[in-house]
Amino acid sequence: MFKKNNLFLGILYGCVLPAIAWLVFSLLLKDDSFIDKPAAPYLVAIGLNLILLRFSAKAYLDKTSNGIMIATFACTLLVFVFKMHS
Hints:
Mean pLDDT: 83
Order of helices and strands: HHH
Number of strands: 0
Strand content: under 5%
Low-confidence stretches: none
């Protein structure tokens, strides 16, 4: 069902780290007093996505890399929009 070089699989890989960051920092750690910048955990997750993107690009998984890039861009845009309105 899932081939190694798949756009949907890349989008799924790209959404995992931002989803984990959202779960940890929104649901488990509700007290934001220890962190000065509330968008920092999400930006760290996006940075990790870029490392994941680099590894998939080195393995010549073009469709997977495109999916990770799409998910990273969408997550970056969502963090920017939601942090500007809060």
